[in-house]
């Protein structure tokens, strides 16, 4: 049994909201500031009290209360309350990032994210978590980060009921039910549920191994799985322990196999497949069982 597929690239989830989530947070911020700027010809939202200069802005604002989203993406069907938000979303399909930082060269798909990024260079208007002291570049990022402390998970999967603190995580999760794989490898055509997993997959073709072991210099494609497991060879760390006997292991897959010793479950079932499978069993079976399988079914002469 192999380890569950790990997260491939750690995204800055506390700082990156989906366009819809960010839009809602921005609407809330604008509403609060507008309540203090009431003029003669101003129009007031009867739901939250926000004030607007014209009917159009009021109409767009009221969609955050009604849930109306009249603008949809022709590629994936995602819906939005504003045309500007739809235009920003379309860049996620094209990969377009027209706004770049003059200091470090990092590129962004929208000006708002560039502005938030620039604060990290200037050290201005940063947002600090009062609980753990973490510094974030935007108020929306702070809102999302606070959910790690409060445990709030406002996004629920309609299929299985699983809850998430970030809208983007729910979107990725729903693809496990729909089998949607919107990101494809240009080299081999394989599809993936997220862009981050696609980027890691591309390293198979490019040979890129950005994570290096400081002890032996060996390179790895992913930090969260291959690299982390490898370092335990040097450190001796065994983070997974058996609740029955206390024996410790470096991998969850090894622990799961060990647990079968307590349950009495046969750890391996060997049925002859349609073709010789000794190569497969060389990978997944202990050497003693592999030898028995090869001698019994593959007529392999040692």
From TrEMBL:
Entries under SUPFAM superfamilies matching the protein: beta-beta-alpha zinc fingers
Any GO molecular function: DNA binding
Cell compartment(s), UniProt: Nucleus
Gene3D superfamilies: Classic Zinc Finger (3.30.160.60)
Region feature (Disordered): 1-41
InterPro entries (alphabetical): Znf_C2H2_sf (IPR036236), Znf_C2H2_type (IPR013087)
Keywords, in A-Z order: DNA-binding, Metal-binding, Nucleus, Repeat, Transcription, Transcription regulation, Zinc, Zinc-finger
Keyword set includes ATP-binding: no
Keyword Translocase found: no
Pfam families: zf-C2H2
An example Gene Ontology CC term for this record: nucleus
Transmembrane feature ranges: none
Domain C2H2-type: 43-70, 71-98, 99-126, 127-154, 155-182, 183-210, 211-239, 240-267
Domain of life: Eukaryota
Family, per entry: Belongs to the krueppel C2H2-type zinc-finger protein family.
PANTHER family tied to this protein: MYONEURIN, ZINC FINGER PROTEIN
Protein name per the record: Zinc finger protein OZF-like
């Amino acid at each position: 049994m192999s380890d569950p597929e790990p997260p491939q690239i750690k995204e800055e989830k506390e700082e990156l909201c989906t366009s819809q989530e960010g839009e809602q947070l921005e609407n809330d911020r604008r509403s609060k500031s507008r309540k203090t700027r009431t003029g003669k010809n101003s129009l007031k939202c009867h739901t939250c009290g926000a004030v607007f200069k014209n009917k159009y802005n009021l109409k767009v604002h009221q969609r955050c209360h009604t849930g109306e989203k009249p603008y949809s993406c022709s590629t994936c069907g995602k819906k939005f309350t504003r045309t500007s938000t739809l235009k920003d979303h379309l860049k996620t399909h094209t990969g377009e990032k027209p706004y770049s930082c003059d200091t470090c060269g990092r590129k962004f798909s929208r000006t708002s994210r560039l502005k938030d990024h620039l604060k990290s260079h200037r050290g201005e208007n940063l947002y600090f978590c009062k609980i753990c002291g973490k510094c974030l570049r935007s108020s929306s990022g702070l809102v999302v980060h606070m959910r790690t402390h409060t445990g709030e998970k406002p996004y629920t999967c309609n299929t299985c009921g699983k809850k998430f603190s970030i809208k983007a995580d729910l979107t990725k999760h729903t693809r496990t039910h729909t089998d949607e794989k919107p990101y494809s490898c240009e080299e081999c055509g394989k599809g993936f549920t997220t862009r981050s997993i696609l980027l890691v997959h591309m390293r198979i073709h490019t040979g890129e191994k950005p994570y290096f072991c400081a002890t032996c210099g060996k390179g790895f494609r992913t930090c969260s799985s291959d690299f982390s497991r490898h370092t335990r060879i040097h450190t001796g760390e065994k983070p997974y322990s058996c609740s029955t006997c206390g024996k410790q292991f470096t991998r969850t897959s090894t622990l799961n196999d060990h647990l079968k010793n307590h349950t009495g479950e046969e750890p391996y079932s060997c049925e002859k497949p349609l073709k010789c499978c000794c190569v497969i069993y060389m990978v997944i079976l202990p050497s003693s069982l592999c030898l028995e399988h090869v001698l019994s079914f593959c007529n392999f002469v040692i």
